[in-house]
Design a protein that fits this description.
12% strand, alpha/beta, 299 residues, two-stranded antiparallel sheet, 5-stranded mixed beta sheet
């Protein structure tokens, strides 16, 4: 049970990584100061690919009113001139949009291996990555640096089985991965589709799930029935109609997108009902608790 565990700490393996002899110089920190934004190149290992315009607008307003409260982090460019971003891409983008020519920055010496790991952990801690981006980050650690799934799990503070399940997202067709990245399909809805094995069938089921508002359990049942997994079939049976008000269905979709899991709003009357949030592992529960701003072990 999650309550019996110590509080989750993402990146619990980073200390071991940073203290390894091959990386003994990686954390050397240079004198912080202000550097020209024109000399800063983007992070080549940034796992996050999409940035919401409204987030940047909010950050621009904050920078305009309060200035930069937390300096970005960069490293000297391996090419010998300028810098590469380590952390703070949204802050840098917002500053550039406001016309800033310089920005406060902390400069650290860091190699490629550590750069990718730091960027991945930072985004996971902020819950900024969608499941596909998270999977791509893990895959890059494995392919480029020869990590095992167990090593990745230790670095990011998750169970190995959780990392393995997240990596399975990359087996989905490109169009289905796009639905997940857009938040129209949750990881819980997408994962059961892999049992269909055929890309065309997976895509067709994914589109139906989005159009008809199927929950993760709906997807699981329909996939199971389609492949005859339980000896029964619902082929030819019309889908169950959803008589809930449109605003309730829309709110349900927003919650699914925000929490990246299956959420059901069940109405018992116009003014009474329940919200059910599904989780699929102890780590998934910890992630949801963090998103909801709660503590696993309240004092």
């Amino acid at each position: 049970m999650a309550s019996e565990k110590s509080p989750r700490r993402l990146g619990r393996g980073l200390d071991a990584l940073f203290n390894a002899p091959v990386l003994s110089e990686a954390r050397e920190e240079l004198q912080p100061g202000t550097i020209p934004v024109a000399e800063i190149a983007s992070n080549p290992y940034q796992p996050r690919k999409s940035f919401k315009p409204e987030e940047l607008v909010e950050l621009q307003d904050s920078l305009r009113l309060n200035g930069l409260l937390q300096a970005i982090t960069v490293r000297p460019s391996p090419k010998g001139k300028g810098y590469e971003l380590i952390a703070g891409e949204r802050r840098l983008r917002a500053a550039i949009s406001l016309g800033w020519s310089e920005i406060p920055a902390v400069v650290k010496k860091m190699n490629d291996q550590e750069l990718l790991t730091m960027a991945l952990v930072e985004n996971l801690q902020r819950a900024d990555l969608n499941p596909v981006e998270e999977a791509e980050g893990y895959e890059q650690l494995i392919k480029q640096f020869g990590y095992t799934q167990q090593t990745v799990a230790e670095l990011v503070g998750k169970d190995r089985s959780t990392v393995a399940n997240i990596l399975r997202m990359l087996q989905l067709p490109t169009s289905v991965r796009a639905l997940v990245q857009e938040g129209r399909l949750s990881a819980g809805q997408a994962r059961p589709l892999l049992a269909l094995e055929d890309g065309a069938r997976i895509t067709a089921f994914a589109k139906q799930a989005v159009e008809n508002g199927w929950s993760a359990r709906d997807v699981e049942r329909r996939v199971r029935d389609s492949i005859g997994g339980d000896g029964s079939s619902t082929k030819g049976r019309p889908p169950k109609l959803d008589h809930r008000p449109p605003e309730v269905r829309a709110l349900e979709q927003r919650l699914r997108k925000h929490l990246q899991t299956d959420v059901s709003i069940n109405l018992k009357s116009p003014r009474k009902g329940s919200i059910v949030i599904d989780f699929y592992s102890a780590d998934d529960l910890d992630r949801l608790i963090d998103l909801l701003g709660l503590s696993v072990n309240p004092q």
